[in-house]
Amino acid sequence: MKSKNIRLAVAVAVAALVAVPMFAARGSANFTRFVVIGDSYGAGFQSGSLNINHQVYSWPAIIAQQAGLKLCGPTATATDNCFAQPLVSYPGIGPELVLQNLTVGPVSQSGQGTPLMTTFGRPYNNLSVPGATVGAALAITGAEAPSAGEPTAVTFGRFILRGLGTEVQQAVAQHPTFIAMWLGGNDYLGSALAGTDKALTPTDVFAQRYNAILDQLVAGAPDAGMVVGNLPAVIPPIFTLVPPFVINPATSQPVLGPDGKPIYYIAELGDGTVGQLPPGSLVLLDARAQIASGFGLPPVPPFNALPNAGKPLPDRLVLTPTEIGNIVTRVGEYNNVINQAATARNIPVADIAGLFNSVTVNPATGAGGLQVGPVKITNAFVTGGFFSLDGFHLTDFGYLLFADQYIRAINAGYGTEIPLAGVTPYMQQWPLPAQAGIPPGNASAGSIVVPDSVSIDLRTMFGAVPPARHFRAVHH
Amino acid sequence: MRSLRFILITTLACLVSAAAFGAGFSIFEQGAKATGMSGAFAATADDPSAIFYNPAGIAQQRQLSLLVGGTAINFSNEFRGDPNSIFTAGATGQYNRHTFVPPNAYVVVPIGSNLSFGVGVFSAFGLRTDWQDPWVGRFISRDADLKTLSVNPVLAWQTSNGKFAIGGGVEYRRAKVVLNQNLALPFLNPFTNRITDIANARLASDWDSSNGWNIGFLFKPTPRWRIGAAYRAPMDIDLHGAADFTAISTGNAQLDALVAPSIPVDQPINTTIPFPAITNIGVATTVGHNWTAEFDIVNMTWSRFKALPINFETTPARNIVRPQNWDDSNSYRLGLNKTVSSNWDVRLGALYDENPQPIESVSPLLPDSDRIGVNFGAGFHAGPFVVDAAAFLLHFKERDTNGHNLDGFNGTYKTDATLWSLNVGYRF
Predict the structure, then answer these.
(1) How many CA atoms, within 13 angstroms, populate the side-chain half-sphere of residue A140?
(2) Residue B337 in contact with residue B46, Cβ under 8 Å?
(3) How does pLDDT run along chain B (428 residues), one tens digit per residue?
(4) So what's the ipTM on this one?
(5) Dmax of chain A from CA atoms?
(6) Which of A250, B96, B197, B271 shows its CA 20 to 30 Å from the CA of B215?
(7) Rounded to a whole number, what is the distance in Å from the CA of A430 to chain B's nearest CA?
């Protein structure tokens, strides 16, 4: 009888032990005071703009709502129990790029938005500052004196951080119960956008700063749950809108040289030499004006009619395969740092790299893309649905997918069952209501012309060029 | 999958599965007396609805009889999106309210002393899943509507001592199906960054028909025991009809113009719907003076439903064959009848009905599931008049697709149905 009881007790104890989750993340998934540290992605920046229409779809805002929190409106006060973001009036800072005509392409709205909550009486829950690197999250407080050519993070930090401390300090000051963080994108994207692999944050510096951020958060909020995310090495559309070879504007096809191959632009190759870009090179959007005046083109007819034919494209407007390889390698090193730093502190890691890989279509095979209900989400410009009209920030839908990767990581780490954010709010109302009246865009305020490749893509998608091979796909 | 045409084809493929109903689209309630006993009626078979349940049963009915009625069916249901699915998380849906009344009518004519002739008209199969707009599953199915009507003349003969009877007949069945869904832009609308409808597709067949047969046996070894068995043959009905596609504005004229050529042309279509064989076997006994109890097993050969083709006659390149892979299913039915007075009977029944639908096929077209039902009934007879009524509460077990749906449309379906049957009869 007694030994039976003991055996029962042992069995119960073993069962209890077995029931403990394999991965016990630090703290708990308590979202009472939820703060977010991040960059432009975290802020909900899209289509060249930070504005209220899209801030409510930022990935932190989506996680907050899935966890049961309300979003603060622009008139909320410090005592309101809501998830506060530094809301900016439409058309935003800067004015949002909108698409009103497929032929014209995205155009900027006119005017400028203003911050709506500068006197909000507590730090924002979403402390993401566009332009923030891991270094900026530790250094910029919003109290910096204005200066010409100041970093983006300083400009945005002025109304987001408001001199109340760094992102990390303000997060800790809120006695957070849960902290989500995504940083590191600007530690390589800024360099890539400058056409170089020379401005990447060194890996040892990245490691020191990333660990310093986590140390400060853990010390300041030892009981808080946490989640971080890894970094994608996918090439966003802004780098692929201008092909690296000469295009015949009349046919939208590459101009072929005497050898029957595309004529790659001549450029400074980043290693001190000048030469033709190797296949696989990327040309930045700003190179278009230079190419129009002859830069990068060989000094032979018909190109030598242009004033600058024979002059190379400057290094800052091109990325060679060597440079791209170095950047991708560095992202891998950053991800190792993130994984090690997070694992050491029992912090789950959201697979953001995996998300970006899943939407990326292999240009050679056409394979890839993420099917969500009736739509396929890809990395294509304009039609892909993932990257916004500025070519490297995400759309509302993209940030939804981003948030869901974080929710998956939280659920896996904490054994919670926070529901994923679904796409029902992203279905166009049907039947369609009367037009809400989008303000007309101002083409002169700056625009991105949809490259011919995109419109060809669109026409192909819609079957204007009948792709007979697609019928065969039916039989799969 | 870069072409919209491909998407249209795949969505049409989904649409086709609308015809893939299930045990869910058989209607076994074809008489209020039998319904009051949960359909356990193969061995009792003592009113004209025996033409449906067991044609041998009309041999024991030695009066010219008429029986007319119907069953009013109401569904209440709820879909809840899978919290782990980006497409359906947070979504909900339910059917529009409808009352369906499949009718039935029977006549039995005795010939001589051992033979009976009868004709039954009934609707043994049917379905409606009409989701309320705005419905997140509208790209798979908005509305599916299957109607059938059968005419079943039978002849039955019994031995002079009444211990053994055999009956059989031929069945003429006609069917009509209407399927409705929306087609979506296969990528996000670049102007609104939203999932966008581009067309409505309505596939409607004409009434088309086929022929089958049924047979039954009834054996009464002792005055207290009865054994009945019946078989209704399987059938395939070739359906011909028309596909109508109506464009839906995306809200942008430029996009509408690009989309327009990709919307399929209206055209004739055809398909084939397989109907299962139905075998029901029952044992009934009389307990004391007033009680009758019957237990039946009903088998339906839904495994015939392996695949469903849809053929587009103008553009055969769009033809589709949609796998279904259903299983045979059984239902287990217990019914009690108590005679409380010379005019009144009361009835009680219970059933368990297995669903034939593999989890991959559980979809807005027909979210079937195992069912549990209880039945209550009463019968009144005075002189030549007979009135039977039954109430039937049917609960579908909650069914979660657990991420397995073929269209990636996952979630939990909950369904309940209430059925009211009424028949009036006259014996000459």
Answers:
(1) 30
(2) no
(3) 334 444 333 333 333 332 222 366 899 999 999 999 999 999 999 999 999 999 999 999 999 999 999 999 999 999 999 999 999 999 999 999 889 899 999 999 999 999 999 999 999 999 899 999 889 999 989 999 999 999 999 999 999 999 999 999 999 999 999 999 999 999 999 998 999 999 999 999 999 999 999 999 999 999 999 999 999 999 999 999 999 999 999 989 999 998 998 889 999 999 999 999 999 999 999 988 899 999 999 999 999 988 878 899 998 988 877 778 999 999 999 999 999 999 999 999 999 999 999 999 999 988 999 999 999 999 999 999 999 999 999 999 999 999 999 889 999 999 999 999 999 999 99
(4) 0.85
(5) 103
(6) B271
(7) 7
Identity of the residue in A396, A427, A463 whose CB atom sits nearest the CB atom of B3: A463
**Other residues' Cβ atoms within 10 Å of the Cβ of residue A444:** 9
Contact B254 A474 (CB under 8 A): no
Give A34-236+322-421's CATH code, choosing from 2.40.160.120, 3.40.50.1110, 1.10.287.130, 3.90.1150.10.
Answer: 3.40.50.1110
User: How far apart are alpha carbons A404 and B265 in whole angstroms?
Assistant: 39
Bond into A302 cis (ω within 30): yes
Closest Cα to residue B243, out of B319, B130, B306, B332? B319
Cis peptide bond upstream of A94, omega within 30: yes
CA distance A382 to chain B (A): 6
Q: Please name the residues in contact with A88: beta carbons below 8 A apart, sequence gap of 6 or more.
A: A50, A51, A52, A55, A113, A114, A115, A116
Inter-chain residue contact B250 with A420, CB threshold 8 Å: no
Q: Using an 8 Å Cβ cutoff, are A410 and A419 in contact?
A: no
CA-based R_g, chain B, Å: 24
Are the CB atoms for B323 and B348 separated by under 8 Å?
no
Shortest CA distance to B43 belongs to which of B298, B213, B341, B275? B298
CATH for B4-427? 2.40.160.60
What are the residue boundaries of the structural domains of chain A, listed by start?
Answer: 34-236+322-421, 245-279+282-319
Where in chain B are the domains? 4-427
Interchain contact, A422 vs B259, CB within 8 Å: no
Q: Which of B256, B249, B263 is nearest to B7 (CA)?
A: B263
Distance from CA of B55 to the nearest CA of A (A): 45
Say yes or no to pLDDT of A9 above 60.
no
Torsion angles phi and psi, residue B292, rounded to 5: -125, 135
What is the phi/psi pair of residue B422, to 5°? -140, 130
Instruction: Round to whole Å and give the CA distance between B134 and B96.
Output: 11
Beta bridge partners of B73: B100, B419
Please answer whether residues A461 and B187 qualify as being in contact, where contact means their C-beta atoms are separated by less than 8 angstroms.
yes
Chain B residues touching residue A431 (CB < 8 angstroms):
248
Interface test with B, best of A408, A461, A465, A475 (most B CBs within 10 A): A461
Buried b (16+ CB within 10 A) or exposed e, B244-263: bbeebebbbeebeebbeebb
